[in-house]
Write a structure and sequence with these properties.
- This protein is of the alpha/beta class.
- It has a single domain, classed as Alpha-Beta Barrel (TIM Barrel).
- It has a five-stranded mixed sheet with strand order 1-2-5-6-7, with helices on one face. Strands 3-4 form a two-stranded antiparallel ribbon. Strands 8-9 form a two-stranded parallel sheet.
Length: 308
């Protein structure tokens, strides 16, 4: 069973343990490795560049043959040995991102490939003591409405959990990083935070087992304020999970623009980042109001065909 070594060597952390300060390494596809706080940093830095170089060669989004111009995420070859090695170096979490495009279908082939790849990755991680962060991102590209996103998300998450069950993945030993249920970025009919929360929570209740300990939403090109308002609205309704965030652009954008690479702007950039972090902290409690936000934080960050 994939869960055996996980239970023996890396028990699921509770929320208080998960949010403690740790070091993070970001690389393509298997993109975040979270280190145990007791691991000496010097023991980890040596291997970081080699790990990144290896993943650039073996993992990432590539064209999916036979599909409607869609992608799949390669990188399973050799993943077992890599995860075992990085567990020994102190890694305890890993993340795998794959994408689903609504304007391009999504084809049944692309959905199945995304779900199967995520399931194999999760099983391999657990077998080697890592907690897998599972991320099928439904891209914002398109003119479709929120109902269409909801329909596709239902299909994607049904496939993901079906194949994770087929691969004996322990649901209590994973974390999810889904996209919120929103209209396409080019849809003329925008959704309110309450509508986003309603559709997203409905998706979670229909597809996500309560055994899953945590859900961390990605922002996917929403503005900083939009992502925070939507998270806040979700946390104003009861749900059996800890509903949190794992934003990149929606946490860093204004901070990076404030900094601009200039040493004299460091303090202002740090203050800006603290404002954003506090806003999302309040949103996890359903207590964010949106008051006092800058115009920069309200700007959307959607980039058509965005890849990383």
């Amino acid at each position: 069973m994939a869960s055996a070594s996980l239970l023996k060597s890396s028990p699921v952390l509770d929320k208080s343990e998960f949010v403690k300060g740790t070091q993070t390494l970001r690389t393509p596809s298997l993109a975040a490795v979270r280190y145990h706080p007791t691991t000496a940093p010097s023991a980890l830095v040596v291997k970081a560049s080699a790990y990144a170089d290896e993943l650039v060669k073996t993992a990432g989004l590539v064209p999916l043959a036979g599909s409607n111009d869609e992608s799949w995420c390669q990188g399973l070859d050799g993943l077992a040995s890599r995860t075992a090695a990085y567990y020994q170096q102190g890694a305890r979490f890993a993340k795998w991102r794959t994408v689903v495009s609504i304007p391009n279908g999504p084809s049944a082939l692309a959905v199945k490939e995304a779900a199967w790849g995520l399931a194999r990755y999760a099983a391999i991680c657990q077998d080697n003591g890592l907690t897998p962060i599972v991320e099928p991102e439904i891209l914002l590209d398109g003119e479709h409405g929120i109902e269409r996103t909801f329909e596709v998300a239902l299909k994607v998450w049904a496939e993901v959990f079906y194949y994770m069950a087929e691969n004996n993945v322990l649901f209590e030993g994973i974390l999810l990083k889904p996209s919120m249920v929103t209209p396409g970025a080019e849809c003329k009919e925008r959704a309110t935070p309450q509508q986003v929360a309603e559709y997203t929570l409905k998706l979670l209740h229909r597809r996500i087992p309560p055994a899953v300990p945590g859900i961390m939403f990605l922002s996917g090109g929403q503005s900083e304020v939009e992502a925070t308002l939507n998270l806040n609205a979700m946390n104003q309704s009861p749900n059996p999970w800890h509903v949190s965030f794992s934003y990149a652009r929606a946490l860093q954008n204004t901070c990076l623009k404030t900094w601009g690479g200039r040493p004299e702007n460091v303090k202002a950039a740090q203050d800006t980042l603290l404002v954003r972090a506090k806003a999302n902290s309040l949103a996890q409690l359903g207590k964010y109001t949106g008051e006092g936000e800058s115009e920069e934080a309200k700007k959307g960050m959607f980039v058509k065909g965005y890849v990383y």
